Amino acid sequence: MQTRTQDELNNDLAKLNNDFNAWKTKKDAKLLKLYQAKSAMEAKGEDCANASQKIKDLEMQISQRQAKLEKALGRIYERMYKAGASANAKKARQERTHHLCNLGGLVEKAGLGDMAPAALLGMLLQQAEYLQANPAILNRWTERGQVALNEKQID
Fold it and tell me: Which residues form a coiled coil (predicted)?
């Protein structure tokens, strides 16, 4: 299934509304003439059942077309929501992937890239426990890490 962009969906939305409004304007003009004719017939005491039926049919036609429009608009709004949601989810996944790649790069810069995953995780868990017990150490680690990052950038 082809994915439509937000702009394409907005264009579809505008076209549906414009088409319906143009169609309805014509029907409203016919309806007005029918009401005027019916009113003139009633004033003369003539039978206006035919005009009443035409009015009823035209109003039903307008109502049905409006219901179809609302369904179509609902589908477009749903696709717009999904397109926006999937775009947001894609961006979040890309940001998370970028963040994880950066963390992997830091592991490499620290010389720990060849360490077994279980050993690396164990070391990180131990350091996390140590950090909770000694929150002031974070400033020292930050300073040392910044120095290392600056040195690596020069190389």
Answer: 6-75
Length of the chain: 155
Per-residue pLDDT of the chain (155 residues; tens, 9 = 90+): 456 777 888 899 999 999 999 999 999 999 999 999 999 999 999 999 999 999 999 999 999 999 999 999 999 888 888 877 777 788 888 999 999 999 999 999 899 999 999 999 999 999 999 999 999 999 999 999 999 989 866 54
How many angstroms separate the Cα of 7 from the Cα of each of 13, 58, 76, 79, 135? Answer: 10, 34, 12, 12, 49
Q: At what angle do helices 49-109 and 137-154 cross, to 10 degrees?
A: 80
Q: Is the dihedral of CA 80, 83, 86, 87 positive or negative?
A: negative
Q: Is the pTM value of this prediction over 0.90?
A: no
- What are the domain boundaries of the chain? 6-113, 115-155
Q: What is the DSSP letter of 111?
A: T
DSSP 4: P
